[in-house]
Write a structure and sequence with these properties.
single chain; 175 residues; alpha+beta; seven-stranded mixed sheet; 5 helices; 29% helix
Length: 175
Amino acid sequence: MTVEYSLADAEHLPYVKHSLLDVHTEAGASDAEHFEARLQAAVAEPGWTTAIGYEAGRAVGYCHGFSLPADTDWWSNVIVPLPEYVTRESGQRTAVLSEIVVRKPWRGTGVAAQLHDIWLSLRPEERVTLLVDSTIGGGALQTVCEKWGYRSVANHRAPGDPTVYTAMIRPVRRP
């Protein structure tokens, strides 16, 4: 298997959107309409970028995310408030990894880790955060994130969403 990787920003979304949608649809993560709404919201955030893996011209996986602005409400949805030194944002401190999806035949091959690392390689922020549904795969997804260097900092629940997520953080560049 030879997977080639590329990066794109919001300006290039029209050229890569079909690749993201194809992977997302095949993975069955959610319906296309819900995905497109979430994608458009993410792309509207500052510093949005995506990493996409292709094999033989076919998208096999992607990840995408953005920068947290200084006036973000991201940390307001944690169930137990965190100290201000954790939640203080400057617009350049924290990247959010919004989503990482890999088609089934490429799962367990290292494609997700490669997408993650390539996406992070060009992030200017000092740290990255993500939300994990710790019930997925009996906790397997959270375990993968921990292997990638993420540490749990809080439980997080968005208004109107019954799911409690685990908020995790790691440095963008690991020592």
